[in-house]
Design goal:
single chain, mainly beta, 7-stranded mixed β-sheet, 4-stranded antiparallel β-sheet, 55% strand
């Protein structure tokens, strides 16, 4: 298993930016997929962005062109740069690590976007 700790959430006005970080307790170089998910008020958890061990990325349609996921294997970290934030981006954001026999989640970080 791997422990994940998210940070960087907060309160921001619409149109602003935030950068979320996810620090892992061990090397993430061999982890097939690292991802960010979110759960808004009264909503189900949804995929925001994923990045594979090879660097391929995939984004939810709602965040394409605004969010960028990246990973730094040397720092055992994954990041989510969020620009042009909208009130509908308000949610708890969770980091996920997924590989064969591995599916770990962080505790989440709150992002609130005011209009």
């Amino acid at each position: 298993q791997v422990q994940l700790v998210e940070s960087g959430g907060g309160l921001v006005q619409a149109g602003g930016s935030l950068r979320l970080s996810c620090a892992a307790s061990r090397s993430i170089a061999s982890i097939n997929r690292m991802g960010w998910y979110r759960q808004g008020p009264g909503k189900q958890r949804e995929l925001v962005a994923i990045i594979t061990s090879g660097g391929s990325t995939n984004y939810a349609d709602s965040v394409k062109g605004r969010f960028t996921i990246s990973r730094d294997n040397a720092k055992n970290s994954v990041y989510l740069q969020m620009n042009s934030l909208k009130p509908e981006d308000t949610a708890v954001y969770y980091c996920n690590a997924w590989s064969f026999a591995l599916d770990s989640w962080g505790q989440g970080t709150q992002v609130t976007v005011s209009s």
